[in-house]
């Protein structure tokens, strides 16, 4: 048994020490900004053949070039992204992130760069419409922590009159697949993603639209500790005006109408008060 | 491009994810081994004072009693207030410390399976406590521990897949990438991933069983 002790213990100890020294991430001023993405959320961010792709990825790279800053992407599941931003584990959140009042209390938003409405997706052969799909004991799929979940809870589930059960998924692709099996009868998702699923040939169709005019934006930690909100705002406007934004969007969602930037800026977001960081002429009075 | 072509093209990335899972596994098992053995030895042969025993018991109860996913979040977000820990570091620490709690109990049962009379006899022959543990008790307990330890090994392989919740891109997360970028194919992709986990598990356990056979005392093999 001496053999085990002689061979295993020192190796184990050395390994532990080696790992210990690699645990910390040291932060220097020149370090690139960490951009958190949910890389299983096409067309905004996804990984193909080991590379980050998507509207948010390409646009973030264009903005970084515009602003002269270095960035690196860090992938995390969507429910972990906002806590990570609030805890300053990442510096910027770039994914299809909807601006909501609740979120704006914990993180700071850039100017909106997209606007979505939600759609009710049902199986191709279904004869449900937007009203019959979301009622009467139906199980409806949403992504956990998403704005669709919040909207459904606020307007449908908690209203009490409509008997609907929400099924929360880690990501929308699983939700849509689960609907194909028949575990849920419909999925509430933003129109951009819905178009993506239909383009990809999934056996789904839109039963109807819920017009919520939800703005999407990038976000930074509350109070903008890295002081990059101004750079990001200017960058978004710059790539929109140069036409680069339009090209990026067209590449991922062919044929879509690109909403104007800056779009509708809700009153409840404090970073949308005049003057907006980096763009002092904009903002709500 | 059908899913099999995509899987073939992205297989190196799945292997990379498997590599991350293996490094995480080895690191957490080592932390667990060193700390777990230490805790077990102090619990069995250390000072009986409550000042020493209670914190150890508390540690072991907490880490065995809290779900690993919660530990991952606590270590990743909680520690970052004090120390800027990376996602991988947080996963190694959370899972390693938890494994230590489990392994301490594996070792405790192995040590306790050695009849106490042997310790008394060794002491009566003039061996120090440390010498008696090293030369009499440990060689027997170590052999007893391998069987239950294969259990810990197998369950920890599978738990590495949870580290993706704090952003460690291991095998399961790489599989998610393929699933979402191809808009589906959940069954095919996860079948491949399940096979990879299974092969790793079998390979590791075979090595451990071979180790157990190699160490078996002649005449006492099962």
Automatic annotation (TrEMBL), chain A:
Residues 32-256 form the Solute-binding protein family 3/N-terminal domain. Pfam families: SBP_bac_3. One of its GO terms (molecular function) is ligand-gated monoatomic ion channel activity. Residues 1-29 form the signal peptide. This is ABC transporter substrate-binding protein. It comes from the Bacteria. Belongs to the bacterial solute-binding protein 3 family.
């Amino acid at each position: 048994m001496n053999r085990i002790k002689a061979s295993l213990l020192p190796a184990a100890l050395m390994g532990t020490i080696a790992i210990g020294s690699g645990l910390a991430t040291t932060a220097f001023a020149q370090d690139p900004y960490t951009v958190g993405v949910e890389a299983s959320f096409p067309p905004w961010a996804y990984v193909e053949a080991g590379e980050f792709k998507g509207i948010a990825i390409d646009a973030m790279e264009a903005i970084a070039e515009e602003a002269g800053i270095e960035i690196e992407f860090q992938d995390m599941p969507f429910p972990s992204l906002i806590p990570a931003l609030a805890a300053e584990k990442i510096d910027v959140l770039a994914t299809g992130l909807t601006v909501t009042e609740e979120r704006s209390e914990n993180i700071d938003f850039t100017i909106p760069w997209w606007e979505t409405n939600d759609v009710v997706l049902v199986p191709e052969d279904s004869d449900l419409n937007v009203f019959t799909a979301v009622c009467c004991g139906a199980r409806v799929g949403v992504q956990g922590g998403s704005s669709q979940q919040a909207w459904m809870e606020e307007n449908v589930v908690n209203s009490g009159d409509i008997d609907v059960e929400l099924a929360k998924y880690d990501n929308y692709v699983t939700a849509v697949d689960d609907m194909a099996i028949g575990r849920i009868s419909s999925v509430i998702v933003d129109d951009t993603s819905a178009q993506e699923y239909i383009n990809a040939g999934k056996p789904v169709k839109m039963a109807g639209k819920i017009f919520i005019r939800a703005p999407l934006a990038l976000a930074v930690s509350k109070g903008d500790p890295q002081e990059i909100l101004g750079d990001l705002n200017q960058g978004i406007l710059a790539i929109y005006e140069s036409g680069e934004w339009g090209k990026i969007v067209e590449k991922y969602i062919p044929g879509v109408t690109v909403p104007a930037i800056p779009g509708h800026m809700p009153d409840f977001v404090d970073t949308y008060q005049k003057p907006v960081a980096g763009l002092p002429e904009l903002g709500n009075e | 491009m059908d899913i099999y072509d995509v899987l073939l093209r992205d297989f190196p990335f799945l292997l990379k994810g498997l590599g991350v899972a293996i490094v995480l596994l080895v690191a957490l098992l080592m932390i667990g081994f060193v700390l777990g053995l230490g805790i077990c030895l102090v619990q069995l042969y250390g000072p009986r004072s409550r000042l020493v025993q209670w914190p150890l018991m508390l540690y072991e109860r907490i880490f065995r009693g809290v779900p690993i996913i919660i530990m991952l979040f606590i270590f990743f977000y909680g520690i970052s207030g004090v120390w800027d820990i990376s996602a991988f570091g947080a996963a190694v620490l959370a899972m390693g410390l938890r494994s230590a709690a489990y392994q301490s109990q594996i070792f405790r049962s192995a040590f306790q399976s050695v009849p106490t009379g042997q310790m008394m006899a060794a002491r009566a022959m003039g061996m120090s406590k440390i010498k008696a543990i090293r030369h009499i008790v440990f060689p027997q307990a170590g052999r007893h521990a391998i069987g239950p330890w294969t259990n810990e090994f197998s369950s920890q392989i599978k738990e590495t897949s949870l580290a993706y919740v704090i952003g460690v891109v291991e095998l399961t997360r790489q599989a998610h990438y393929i699933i979402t970028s191809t808009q589906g194919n959940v069954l095919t992709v996860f079948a491949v991933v399940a096979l990879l986990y299974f092969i790793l598990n079998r390979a590791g356990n075979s090595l451990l069983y071979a180790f157990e056979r190699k160490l078996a005392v002649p005449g006492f093999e099962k």
